[in-house]
Amino acid sequence: MILDVDLTSETPIYQQIRDRVVEGIAAGELADGDPLPSTRQLAVDLGINFHTVNKAYGQLRREGLLLITRKSGAVVQRTPGAPDDWPARLKTLLAEAIAHGMSERDVLSQCETTLRTFDEVPA
Amino acid sequence: MILDVDLTSETPIYQQIRDRVVEGIAAGELADGDPLPSTRQLAVDLGINFHTVNKAYGQLRREGLLLITRKSGAVVQRTPGAPDDWPARLKTLLAEAIAHGMSERDVLSQCETTLRTFDEVPA
C-alpha cells in the first residue's frame, strides 16, 4: 500500500498516517504479519520528522493493530474486537450528519457505500 | 436536554459538550432557535472553567450549528449540508471496526441501530 499524506491538510500528519494504515487493514491491503516501513524510511519518503511516524505507529500499537519489536520493526497484528468507545464515536459522527440535515436514509446509504470500498480486490 | 459530561473520561470536556449538543440536535431535543445555557451558567453547573464551554460553543459555531450573539447568547442554528470531510471521517471510523475484525454486516447493523436512536421522541 502507498502511505500518502496531505501536508496541507488541517488533520495532523501522524493522524493521517494512522488513518491510512487503519483503512489499509480494513481494505485487506495490509494483513497480519505485514511489515510497515521503518519509521526513518517513511519519514524520509514523506519528508517529515520521524517522531511524527513514531507517534502514528505508537498509537496504532496502543489501538491493538500493530506489533513493534526491535527485531522486526512495525508489523501488522490485529487484536479482535472494536474499541469500547467505538459505538459512542459512531453515534457522534452519524449525529453530525443528521444535525446538518442529512436524511437517515442518505447516512445509511453512505455507510453501505463506504463499507463496499473495503471489499475491493487489493491492488 | 441535559448536558452531561464525564470528568474522568479521556475525551476533552469541550469535545464532550460539543458531542452532546450535536447528538441533541440530531435527536431533535434541540431545534433551530433553541438557546443553550450561557457559558458561565453551564460552567457553574458542570463545575468546569467557562473557557472550556466557550471552546465547545466556538467549535459548534464554526461547524455551522450554533449562532452566538451578544443579545441572545448561543442559539441553535443549523447550516444544511454535512461537512466536506465527513465522508472521509466516516470511512476511517468504519475502517477501524473492520480492521478489528467486525463484519461489514455487524458494522452496518450498528449504524442502523444508532440512527434509530435519533428517532426517539424527545423527552
Automatic annotation (TrEMBL), chains A, B:
Q: Does the keyword Lipid metabolism apply?
A: no
Which SUPFAM superfamilies does this UniProt record tie to the protein? Answer: Winged helix' DNA-binding domain (SSF46785)
Q: Which Gene3D superfamilies match?
A: Winged helix-like DNA-binding domain superfamily/Winged helix DNA-binding domain
Top-level taxon of origin: Bacteria
The residues covered by the HTH gntR-type domain are 11-79
The UniProt keyword set, sorted, is: DNA-binding, Transcription, Transcription regulation
Q: Does the keyword Repressor apply?
A: no
Q: Which PROSITE patterns match?
A: HTH_GNTR (PS50949)
Under the heading PANTHER family, the entry gives: GNTR-FAMILY TRANSCRIPTIONAL REGULATOR, HTH-TYPE TRANSCRIPTIONAL REPRESSOR YTRA
Q: What is this protein called?
A: GntR family transcriptional regulator
